[in-house]
Design brief:
The structure holds 2 protein chains of 2 kinds. Chain A is about 65% helix and about 5% strand. Chain A contains 10 helices and 2 strands; from the N terminus they run H-H-H-H-H-H-H-E-E-H-H-H. The mean pLDDT of chain A is about 90. Chain B has 2 domains: about 220 residues, 3-Layer(aba) Sandwich (Rossmann fold), CATH 3.40.50; about 80 residues, Alpha-Beta Plaits. In chain B, the strands form 3 sheets. A 6-stranded mixed sheet of chain B has the order 6-7-8-3-9-10, with helices on both faces. Chain B has a 4-stranded antiparallel sheet with strand order 2-1-4-5, with helices on one face. Classes of the chains: A mainly alpha, B alpha/beta.
């Protein structure tokens, strides 16, 4: 019961903190800017991409539809969203330590494990809200503005055409995996937050780690090859696998396993650290 | 003997190479207003953080309500209300919302009416919806007290609750503590470096210095040892001074206004001096022998 009370507290705190709305506002603005740009000049961009296929294929109907627009938006923005998530979740423990409220909370009859778990769950709920908002803005608003139709995806293997009726479940799966990836970012930032009383440190550290792992993942250097499959950043774009045909199920499950494993380790380390920590703030 | 509420035995804690507290022991009994006295950096806050399980001691035991804080943390903390160092709340939330948040995890969640009543009790009635960020220091302290009392705890731990308050605020907090003891029979542990505060409201105390507990006992007993300060109001004063010099030629006194003197004296000398003054036809209006806490405190921390 006290875990639910604490979770309710955490949700209230996130909901009433002005910073929490920065991410949602940023998503709204960014998506609107991209949608405006695509509306204004999207066909020329599409023509540039499809020109290499036009000798062998002819494109009919609404190519620049809501399904494609949403895919373009997600590809552009899912790299920036971790920062917006970390802005809130990286503050959940260390921000309270900096404010002194963690001291007040820790004198209450709630175990530290429950207190931290409620923060992880609240961080997850916030991440889910961010992802859902991203979905509403890119997919729902995209379809309203650009209409719907078959989806054309250009990936490393070539051009994939997905039937209109075959798209929605792919978005659902894609968003679910994207949520798991962002929840890993949330877990990482909360974990780092347990080691410091500085509010900004965990946010900067989380972004630095994502940047470092992304660079390692993209560097074509053999020495990094053994670790690349285990970096969570390698699997942050796993949502794109849902837009391949046929669906690379084993790759998707591998990504899910790596992300879940990261979460288990990060949450365990956080719980151990927070449980044994001397609260001196 | 009343029920023992807090029993601390041989508590020690090191931060790196710094020994914050070493072998601290004391006991607090039901209904005590227990003074936890020591200079800045003596280890008061570290000890209090150990009591609230914010810090895990390296060695020693803490029992509250007869149970170990290590094994019965949640059940004990449900009966304790604390302010440690200063009340810190969420700046972006209102007074009401802040209390609601802490109440929800206190083990005894309070209703809206109870929260409003408590805010009224500490003098914050009408400010329920005001943001904590806009509160003065005194209002923050009052909100801290409200948070401490909201779940009706049996033990109240207040760490420097009057620091930074104006004189009226200090009097209000002192009266509140005395009301909690007298009307509700609460046990209060009051940490302070304000000697007058301890002297005025505590019945028992411990003095800690350099991380060690130096002395523990009833305030009245500790302040009435053999070496006392005697405040003598007598007339005529000039003649009184001569009589005092004839009684003890090397006596040093201090004038207290125009009608009184104060000087050190041994407890056993008081009846002899009184008789001597009467024999010398000195009119005695008042005699007050006491050991001041300040003198006692300085003596203890210089040991």
């Amino acid at each position: 019961m006290i875990l639910f009370n604490s979770l309710y507290n955490e949700i209230i705190k996130i909901a009433l903190k002005p910073r929490s709305y920065l991410g949602l506002a940023a998503i709204t603005v960014l998506v609107c800017v991209i949608q405006f740009a695509l509306k204004a000049d999207g066909m020329s961009i599409i023509s540039f991409v499809t020109s290499s296929f036009e000798q062998t294929l002819s494109f009919e109907g609404n190519v620049l539809n809501g399904n494609l627009v949403a895919f373009i938006i997600l590809q552009m923005l899912l790299v920036q969203i971790p920062l917006l998530v970390a802005l809130v979740t990286g503050d959940l423990v260390s921000g309270e330590a900096a404010m002194g409220t963690i001291r007040m909370l820790a004198t209450k009859p709630i175990s530290r494990i429950q207190l931290l778990l409620s923060k992880f769950i609240a961080g997850g709920i916030y991440t889910l809200v961010v992802i859902l908002w991203m979905g509403v803005m890119s997919v729902v608003v995209g379809k309203l503005l650009f209409g719907t139709g078959d989806m054309m995806v250009l990936n490393s293997d070539g051009l994939v055409i997905l039937q209109e009726a075959d798209v929605n479940w792919r978005y659902l799966g894609g968003f679910a995996v994207a949520f798991l990836a962002l929840f890993t970012v949330s877990s990482l930032s909360i974990c780092l937050s347990c080691f410091t009383d500085n509010s900004i440190g965990p946010i900067v550290a989380t972004m630095s780690i994502i940047l470092l792992f992304t660079i390692i993942g993209t560097l074509d250097v053999r020495v990094f090859d053994p670790i690349k499959p285990y970096l969570f950043t390698t699997h942050m774009a796993a949502w794109r696998s849902f837009f391949e045909d046929p669906l690379p199920l084993s790759a998707i499950w591998r990504s899910i396993a790596v992300l879940v494993a990261h979460n288990v380790v990060l949450i365990s380390v956080s719980l151990y650290t927070f449980h044994h920590k001397d609260i001196q703030s | 003997m009343p029920e023992k509420i807090i029993s601390v035995r041989h508590l020690s804690k090191k931060f790196g190479s710094f020994q914050a507290i070493h072998d601290v022991s004391f006991s607090v009994y039901k209904g005590d207003v227990f003074g936890f006295l020591g200079p800045n950096g003596a280890g008061k806050s570290t000890s209090i953080r150990c009591l609230n399980s914010l810090i895990k001691p390296d060695s020693g035991t803490i029992e509250i309500f007869g149970e170990s804080i290590t094994t019965h943390r949640e059940s004990i903390l449900g009966r304790v209300g604390s302010i440690i160092e200063k009340p810190d709340f969420y700046k972006y939330l209102s007074a009401y919302r802040n209390l609601e948040i802490f109440s929800r995890i206190s083990g005894k969640p309070s209703s809206k009416q109870e929260i409003y009543k408590m805010l009224d009790f500490v003098g914050l009635g009408g400010r329920e919806k005001d943001k904590f960020a806009g509160f003065s220091h005194g209002m923050k302290q009052r909100l801290g007290i409200a948070q401490t009392l909201l779940h009706n705890p049996d033990l109240i731990i207040l760490d420097e609750p009057t620091t930074g308050l104006d004189p009226q605020g200090i009097i209000d907090i002192r009266n509140l503590i005395l009301r909690l003891k007298n009307e509700q029979n609460k046990t209060v542990l009051l940490s302070s470096h304000n000697l007058a505060e301890i002297e005025l409201i505590c019945n028992r105390m411990v003095i800690i210095n350099k991380g060690r507990s130096m002395v523990e006992g009833k305030v009245s007993e500790l302040m009435n040892g053999e070496n006392l300060i005697l405040r003598l109001e007598a007339s005529p004063l000039s003649q009184t001074k001569n009589v005092l010099l004839s009684w003890k030629p090397n006596l040093l006194w201090e004038n207290v206004g125009d009608t009184a003197l104060q000087f050190p004296i041994e407890k056993s000398e008081i009846p002899l001096l009184t008789k001597f003054l009467v024999d010398q036809k000195i009119e005695i209006y008042s005699l007050e022998a006491k050991r001041t806490l300040e003198d006692y405190f300085i003596k203890i921390i210089n040991q």
